[in-house]
Amino acid sequence: MSNKPLVYLTFIILVLGGGLLIGAGNMPGDWYQSLAKPSFNPPNWVFAPVWSLLYVLIGVVGARTWLTLRHSMAMRLWFAQLVFNFAWSPVFFGLKDPTSALIVILALLVCVIGFIAASRRQDRAAALLFLPYLAWVAFATALNGAIIALN
Q1: Is residue 37 situated within a structural domain?
Q2: Looking at the domain assignment, is residue 59 inside a domain?
Q3: What is the CATH number for 128?
Q4: 50: enclosing H helix or E strand
Q5: CB atoms < 10 A from the CB of 133, how many?
Q6: How far is it, in rounded angstroms, from Cα 1 to Cα 112?
Q7: How far is CA 23 from the centre of its chain?
Q8: Lowest-confidence segment of 9-13, 22-26, 71-75, 139-143 by average pLDDT
Q9: Where are the bilayer-spanning segments (predicted)?
Q10: Parent domain of 47
Q11: Count of domains forming the chain
Q12: Helix axes 47-69, 4-12, angle to 10 degrees
């Protein structure tokens, strides 16, 4: 019997659970509501379902990478992106520091791109599964930058 389902479940719980806990502990409050936002800022309700779906994808990709490329640069980049991902909300919302959050999200963007580049030859599916995440992080980076510019 394979432990693959357990590995997938563990990674999904780690990422989705961690993301939801960090999100719940760093909710946008009055400070965020008072900020000027760009015209392309989505409504607040969009973020939770989008991130939940992305966290499941990130967990699946992490499990795939763990099972096939555990000691690779791709796995190191996967863990690095998770650290930066989990750091962003506490920096932006918790510390109320969009400028430092922009540095965090730029590092996240670099790690996501690096993961895709590092994994695309050995696990094309994992690289492709990270493309929606890349698109969302690029969008979130632009949003973060626009909030800084407007405030």
Answers
A1: no
A2: yes
A3: 1.20.1260
A4: helix 47-69
A5: 22
A6: 33
A7: 12
A8: 22-26
A9: 7-25, 45-63, 75-95, 101-118, 130-150
A10: 4-25+42-150
A11: 1
A12: 140
